[in-house]
Amino acid sequence: MSPTPLHLLWLLFAPLALGLLAWVRPPRHSGLVLFVAMPLPLVALWLLLGLDDGPMAGQLALGPLTLHWRLDGLAALLWLLTQLLLLASALYAAGYVRTTTLGQRAYAWLWPLMGGLALGLGLIWIAADLLLLYAGLELMGLCAVGMMLLPGNAEALTAGLRYLLFALVGSLTWLLGIALLLGAWGRLDLAGMAGLASVAQPDPVTQIAVALLASGLLLKGAIFPLHSWLAPVHGSAWTPVSAIHGALVVKASFFILLLLWRALLPEAIAGAWALGLLGSLAVLWGGIQAWRAVGLKQLVAWSTVGQLGYLMLAFPLLAGTSAAVALMAWQATWLQLAGHALAKAAMFMAAGNLLLSTGAHRLEGLTGTSRRLPLSLMTFGLAAVTLMGLPPSAGFTAKWLWLQASLASGQWLWVVVLALGSLLSAIYVFRVLRCSFVEDAPEQAFRSLPLGMELIALVLALAAIGLGLAAGWPLSFLAPVGVP
Amino acid sequence: MSTMSALLPLATLASSLLTAAVIFMLPEQAVRTRTALNLAAALIKLVLVIWMARGLVAGEVYAVEFAVVEGLSFVLRVDALGLTFAGLSSLLWLFTTIYAIGYLEDSPNRRRFFGFFSLCVASTLGISLAGNLFTLLIFYELLTLSTYPLVAHRGTPQALAAATVYLRYTLSAGLVLMIGMVALQVLAGDLRFGQREFLAALGPEARPWLIGLFWLLTLGFGVKAALVPLHGWLPRAMVAPAPVSALLHAVAVVKAGAFGIVRLVYDVYGIAFSASLGVLDGLVVIASVTIVYGSLRALAQQELKPRLAYSTVSQVSYIVLGIGLFGPLGTIAALAHLLHQGLMKVTLFFCAGNYAEELGIHRIDELDGVGRRMPLSSLAFTIGALGMIGMPPVVGFISKWMLGMGAMQAEMPWVIAVLVASTLLNAAYFLPILNRLWFRPGPAHGIGTWPAERAPSRLETSVWLLLPALATALLSLLAGMLAGLPFSPLQWATRVVEQTYLMP
Amino acid sequence: MTIAPAAVSAAAWVLVSLLLFLAGFCLLHRNLWRACQGFVAFALLMSLAWLVLGSPWLALAEALLGALLTGGTLLWTLRGRGALPRLAPVDETPRRARLSAPLRWLLILSWLGLSGVALVMLLGLDALSPPTSTSTLLTATGVLIMGLGLWAFSAQRHLLRRLLAFNLLGSGVFLLLAGVAAPVPVSMIAHLEPAPIAEVRALIFIGLVVALLGSVLGAALLLQLHAQAGQVTLTPMAPRHPGR
């Protein structure tokens, strides 16, 4: 049996159905969640493995409306990653609710929002026209805002409101960009537009449209300098929500941006460099802010800003470079994205565990954790290995490829950025680890945590590490520098 | 190729990696299980390494490799040079493990300590078996990460500060290494160790690049090898527990740096090509400066462990000096000293640790008359110190002799002056210690008291602490006296040179 | 339903000036109650505009989602809900200092400038002369409304007013979207495919739903925030980069 569009439809809507079910009866046991939700990543894996004969693509006609979709190796990989991380986060949430006092209604709302998020992300991965992308992006954005607001305290509310306003304006920017594209090209499907773009000279309208689309996406993706909403929103959010958000939601915007860029302006070198420079600033600024951060979760959130900056290096390294360089940059980008997603989720969970157990929100409160919470601390450290780009993690292999691509294409600037970024991340990571070694700290009341919560994070962190050496397998599914 | 050939290197690596994983999973209180596991793993690893050594002599090939991404492979490959280092580290790991078990008795956080300890040795092994620069870098950085918790182990402000300095040096160096290795890969592709002709064939326009990259990579390796002026982390890291110092100085870290330079010169660039690029002379100069500077600084230290630390700075550069001397004798001297310095230095650190543990002695002027209270430890210390000075029949003599011969062969007679100066300085900072140990009256003769004496035991100190020191002292003596026998460090180094470098 | 162009003109001009007037009224009036009522009227006029542009379904959606639900939610928020304390009916918060944020102005102007340039390129230079067709007229109105909305969104602090501004901004973008795609565009690249009207409507429809959900969520949050912290703005002290 090979995958059919119906399977895709099932994988899109099953998480939402499960989410609604869980809304009615919120689960309190990880085992139940695992049992019910396990098929989702398995189906995603099966879809990935079923792509041997090449990507699937098709159209769906709803009356006069035609929707385009396609499922290639990249989309299937990202979908698998999404399902895995959502499952991990759901498992974590079931443990989280037992160790903290969450509002019952708020906890129930977590589940349909998570289902909606899964649907939105799924739509984004498989969308092949701007309409579906728009729908997916908005669904994901609203669900993400909703999840961030669940704690319901004033801090979360202001942070969430700011996020909401940013996201709404971002979506209007994006819509304006689509309007202009529609005016210029008269169509919305990416393949068609890419086909036209490959023969026509890039016209100013398209450039303006992509600039608008890009700024909308940068806003939603928290990419420098439009990142200011990110750190506050993570400071107050629930740990499983932060984990998904840092791992997946901000990545989706980047994915769309890269997709559009490759389709519409594959040769726009100046714009690509501008994005690369923005990314470089993000790396530095995010690193410096994480260095200065007072709270553990803020530190992790700022590190997301920095790590997203690395991804932006893909633009200059893909635009107008030789095929070999582009291939390395292409592989490095997705490897970094996947590695960072796994590691960041693990790191948020480990940080959440540390905070939950010590009750401290500042870094200084972590003293003595190496004796009391070795597993969570270890997880934090392992996740940090990926973020610092140290071997043998996905971050390391990605960094190696990026360095190689930069040197081979003569774009020396990125070497400097990568080096500085690595050093900065080492500095802020070891700020945390250092605290945990202090022995003469006052004894605190440590709360014990369910082993499951620590193990989920550990598994994710180990996956990020393992991906570094086993990168060949997932990368074999990527089409060579695909134009969608 | 049989499956055995792939399995053995992996098994050797796994013997420490799995131990680390299991130790992290064991509860803190499981002392006996942990001890048994540590010792068993150390023994198994030693046996596996010896097995591979015998196989290698018999002409077997041990190699594993797989592609991480296209054009970038993870390669483990056993060769004579790698096995030299692997043998050293597994032998000394056994002794250091025994020592650490005794040293850390009843102290907190032993699970963390032994977990990272195993990880550290696994990385060292990985470094020695790595078959290309990418794999070498993986384990090299892993070594940095796994030694950080060991240096910071005590959690005191000094320990944390030292660990931070250590990280600053080593992580920056790792980054420099990475950039250099990537650049080399861009120039020449994924080079395996031993494919020396690739770089030489690149043509004259690549030469400036190659020279630049050589120095970049040497800069990266030089931090761990503690070449002046990159040595700043080493004396500070002395705050770590004694077994960690032994590990840093003799078994793993500085050796990894020196080994990296060995690989770079012999297996990546090739000794002949390096000589033609003119980079070897630079190495000799750097090594000479480091040797003299380290000795001078050692002379100025008033505490025992910092003096030993600066002595390491100086002694490790003998290896680099040997590499820089173009010719088989220089190479033999470098490789033999890699082993010899390990044996002697580990002995010295064990003894220093014993003095600190048993009597609370940290300063040199507190050592008066210790020879009477702790005769066996002091005997071991004496052997190590005489070896460092280069007194026959301890192995240090052989190193210096071979270095001198190498210098003559390379037509650099001024190096002999450096050696003589260094020997005099070695004597100047070790002989006063020996004098105090044996000939000055102290608390053992009823004058004054020890700083902090432990309750007396049946022997002069705990068996766990005493035996490793005696064993390594004996080995450094035997390796010197029986240098002519097969499988002695000198013979093994000669074999490496004969088989790998000069007769291809 | 095709209406003779000359006949529309006058009606269209009236419609457009009313739209602009209501947009300004709704954005500038400090009495929130009045402003929200102004918004409902604006949304109803928008619905009329969709009718004029020939999409009755969008007109219906606008009337339902925009006027009834969004407007209703905002009014309901003002009336107070259950035990939550009521918002003050008049916005007392000071406007942000006019010259304090050149960056903000830069963003607004570049947004408007970019879309203006792009529009002129799409519709040809005669877009600059007095508009000749209803759709061009509405497109130009869209740009003006967008400008008003952007200005209000960035200058005002009261969250309810910012939500209103966002809604108007959205309406401006919708008008522009419809205007650009609805007639056969005179674009740079000659293509003879019919403009995808259905897709445009779907985009606008999704946009309307998002605006509704955003407004509902924002209004509910505003009430909660007001109840918990007594504030109706994002930051009581208004630092530039709050809450690091």
UniProtKB/TrEMBL annotation, chain A:
Keyword Membrane present in the record's keywords: the answer is: yes
Keyword vocabulary terms for this entry: Cell membrane, Membrane, Transmembrane, Transmembrane helix
Q: Which GO terms describe its cellular component?
A: plasma membrane
* Broad class of where this protein is predominantly found: membrane
Query: What is the membrane topology listed in the Swiss-Prot or TrEMBL record?
Result: Multi-pass membrane protein
Checking Pfam families in the record gives: Proton_antipo_M
Question: In the UniProt record, does the keyword Mitochondrion occur?
Answer: no
Q: Where are the transmembrane segments?
A: 6-24, 31-51, 71-94, 106-126, 132-151, 163-185, 205-226, 238-262, 268-288, 308-330, 342-361, 373-391, 411-430, 451-475
The record ties this protein, via InterPro entries, to: CPA3_Na-H_Antiporter_D (IPR050586), ND/Mrp_TM (IPR001750)
User: Domain named NADH:quinone oxidoreductase/Mrp antiporter transmembrane: which ranges?
Assistant: 127-424
Q: Where in the cell is it found?
A: Cell membrane; Membrane
What family is it from?
Belongs to the CPA3 antiporters (TC 2.A.63) subunit D family.
Give the protein's recorded name.
NADH-ubiquinone oxidoreductase
Q: What is the native source organism of this protein?
A: Lamprobacter modestohalophilus
From TrEMBL, chain B:
Spans traversing the lipid bilayer: 6-24, 36-54, 74-101, 113-140, 166-188, 209-234, 246-266, 278-296, 316-339, 379-402, 414-434, 463-485
Which terms in the GO cellular component ontology are assigned?
endomembrane system; membrane
Sorted alphabetically, which keywords does the UniProt record give? Membrane, Transmembrane, Transmembrane helix
Domain NADH-Ubiquinone oxidoreductase (complex I) chain 5 N-terminal positions: 72-114
InterPro entries in the cross-refs: CPA3_Na-H_Antiporter_A, ND/Mrp_TM, Proton_antipo_N
Please indicate if the UniProt record lists Mitochondrion as a keyword: no
Sequence ranges assigned to domain NADH:quinone oxidoreductase/Mrp antiporter transmembrane in this UniProt record: 130-424
* Predominant localisation class: membrane
Localization per Swiss-Prot or TrEMBL: Endomembrane system; Membrane
* Record membrane topology: Multi-pass membrane protein
Q: What is this protein called?
A: Proton-conducting membrane transporter
Q: Which organism is it from?
A: Lamprobacter modestohalophilus
From TrEMBL, chain C:
| Matching InterPro entries | MrpA_C/MbhD (IPR025383)
- MrpA C-terminal/MbhD domain residues: 18-79
Lineage: superkingdom: Bacteria
The alphabetical list of record keywords is:
Cell membrane, Membrane, Transmembrane, Transmembrane helix
Q: Does the keyword Ligase apply?
A: no
> What GO cellular component is one of the record's annotations?
plasma membrane
Compartment(s) where it occurs, according to its Swiss-Prot or TrEMBL record: Cell membrane
| Pfam families the record matches | MbhD
* Listed transmembrane segments: 6-28, 35-53, 59-78, 105-125, 137-154, 166-190, 202-223
Q: How does the UniProt record describe the way this protein sits in the membrane?
A: Multi-pass membrane protein
Name of protein: MrpA C-terminal/MbhD domain-containing protein
Task: Please report the organism this UniProt entry assigns to the protein.
Answer: Lamprobacter modestohalophilus
